[in-house]
């Protein structure tokens, strides 16, 4: 794995060209300073590399299920290499980064979302599945909501969302290129017990005569991102003006001292208003045309995955779950799409006459049913238009049904059969039933369309 990691680093321009490293189930995601240094041909010549995608400032290397292990090795190698950079090299990197930030605003937005939230996906998934287990314990085994066991398990599963500002402080700092631990400390001020106590008390407070807007920042996103973005510029300023003799002390002190009041008095409230506005937009869509977004996502999800934007778009769902406890917009559509893609890929397996293709397509189809669609998409669906059409139709129909029946999910997780428990609702048992119907409908429609359109031996 180390040899593969070294090749990946070398062929994207070296460790000095890597700004941030993240991963998902099948991809190593490298946020680069200069995309022009990527040797795509050399990367594709590496046997383990399935495909290389460029999205904004991010190069995504698709290698399959070994992506998390590769991420660990690459992260360690990059951190070791970059820690030996001189101050002048660091300044040069910052200058190049600033030039790049002026371009490709939309691409940078999705790149930022992906870079900040993708590292947190395992924690979101773990918390979500614990929530599902808790719901099963209550519904099936009669665990009382007032019991100490329920209270403890519930607060453990809520931890990632309650302290989301701190986790985002770390990942945002990685993206913006500033000190992770100072960023975490600044983000922690939004959920510090003293501050939350002031919010609960509801009494007016001020800081040197300036009123402090009291807002419950737990589970919020934008306040931390805006504050850490501002901090990245403050840190560079502090680095420039700090004398070398006391730089190690003065730089972090000035960074913290300047950033926290601006975050508390200005950027935090602005971010809170922005988050509330976005939640109101979600609520308006959900209230007026509840089928629209799940249907669209169900239909176009393969294309989002193909260009690597599914993680960035999924950020909106993370925000919705964190702030209101469930999502009604994206996860249900992605569930329909993944199931449809699994069905259409299974048809390719059944219709194939090639004994080598049949097991590969079957495995990819089952994997898609479990929520991981890259093997099916890159190995089969993208190469067969009829299979792709069946996936789009099946996903759209399933997403439409999920929308009109108002299916919601209460936690994150790769949308597929193993994560169906995240749709369990003690208050609304029909939610899980309708999610299961969505699965059946998506599978049946995609399978039927693919079976009718694809001729035997067409995949060989």
Q: What is the C-alpha radius of gyration, as a whole number of Å? A: 24 Å
The overall strand count is: 6
Q: What's the number of helices?
A: 19
Overall morphology: globular
- Class based on secondary structure composition and strand pairing: mainly alpha
Measure the end-to-end span: 32 Å
Kindly state the percentage of residues in helix. Answer: 55-70%
Adjacency order of strands in the biggest sheet = 1-2-4-3
The major pleated sheet works out as:
4 strands, antiparallel
Output mean pLDDT. 86
Description:
By secondary structure, the chain is mainly alpha-helical. Helix content is 66%, strand content 6%. The chain has 19 helices and six strands. It has helices at residues 2-11, 40-44, 67-83, 87-101, 105-117, 121-141, 148-162, 164-176, 180-188, 193-201, 222-241, 247-288, 292-306, 310-324, 331-351, 357-369, 374-379, 385-404, 430-453, and strands at 18-23, 27-32, 51-55, 58-62, 206-207, 210-211. It is globular, with a radius of gyration of 24 Å. The relative contact order is 0.09. Mean pLDDT is 86; it is low at 86-103.
Tell me briefly what this model is.
The chain is mainly alpha-helical and 460 residues long. The protein contains 19 helices and six strands. The protein starts with a helix and ends in a 7-residue tail after the last helix.
């Amino acid at each position: 794995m180390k040899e593969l990691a070294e090749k990946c680093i070398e062929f994207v321009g070296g460790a000095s060209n890597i700004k941030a490293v993240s991963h998902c189930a099948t991809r190593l995601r490298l946020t680069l300073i200069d995309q022009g240094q990527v040797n795509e041909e050399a990367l594709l010549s590496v046997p383990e590399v399935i495909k290389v995608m460029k999205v904004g400032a991010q190069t995504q290397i698709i290698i399959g299920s070994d992506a998390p292990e590769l991420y660990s090795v690459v992260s360690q190698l990059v951190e070791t290499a970059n820690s030996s950079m001189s101050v002048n090299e660091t300044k040069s990197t910052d200058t190049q980064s600033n030039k790049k930030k002026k371009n490709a605003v939309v691409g940078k937005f999705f790149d930022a979302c992906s870079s900040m939230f993708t590292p947190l996906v395992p924690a979101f998934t773990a918390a979500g599945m614990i929530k599902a287990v808790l719901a099963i314990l209550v519904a099936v085994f009669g665990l009382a909501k007032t019991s100490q066991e329920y209270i403890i398990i519930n607060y453990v599963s809520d931890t990632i969302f309650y302290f989301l500002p701190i986790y985002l402080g770390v990942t945002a700092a990685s993206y913006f290129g500033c000190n992770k631990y100072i960023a975490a400390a600044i983000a922690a001020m939004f959920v510090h017990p003293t501050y939350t106590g002031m919010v609960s008390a509801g009494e007016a407070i001020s800081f040197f005569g300036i009123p402090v807007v009291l807002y419950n920042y737990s589970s919020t996103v934008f306040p931390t991102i805006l504050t850490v973005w501002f901090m990245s510029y403050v840190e560079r300023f502090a680095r420039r003006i700090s004398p070398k003799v006391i730089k190690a002390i003065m730089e972090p002190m000035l960074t913290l001292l300047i950033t926290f009041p601006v975050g508390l008095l200005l950027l935090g409230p602005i971010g809170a208003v922005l988050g509330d506005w976005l939640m109101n937009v979600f609520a308006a869509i959900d209230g007026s045309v509840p089928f629209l977004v799940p249907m669209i996502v169900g239909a176009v999800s393969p294309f989002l995955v193909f260009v690597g934007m599914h993680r960035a778009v999924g950020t909106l769902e993370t925000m919705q779950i964190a702030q209101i406890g469930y999502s009604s917009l994206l996860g249900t559509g992605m569930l329909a799409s993944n199931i449809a893609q699994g069905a259409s890929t299974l048809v390719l397996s059944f219709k194939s006459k090639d004994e080598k293709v049949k097991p590969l397509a079957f495995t990819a189809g089952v994997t898609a049913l479990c929520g991981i669609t890259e093997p099916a998409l890159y190995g089969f669906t993208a190469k067969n238009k009829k299979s792709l059409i069946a996936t789009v139709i099946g996903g759209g129909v399933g997403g439409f049904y999920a929308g009109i029946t108002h299916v919601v999910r209460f936690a994150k997780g790769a949308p597929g059969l193993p994560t169906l428990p995240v749709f369990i609702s003690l208050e609304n048992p029909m939610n899980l039933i309708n999610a299961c119907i969505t699965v059946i409908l998506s599978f049946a429609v995609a399978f039927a369309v693919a079976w009718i359109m694809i001729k035997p031996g067409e995949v060989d």
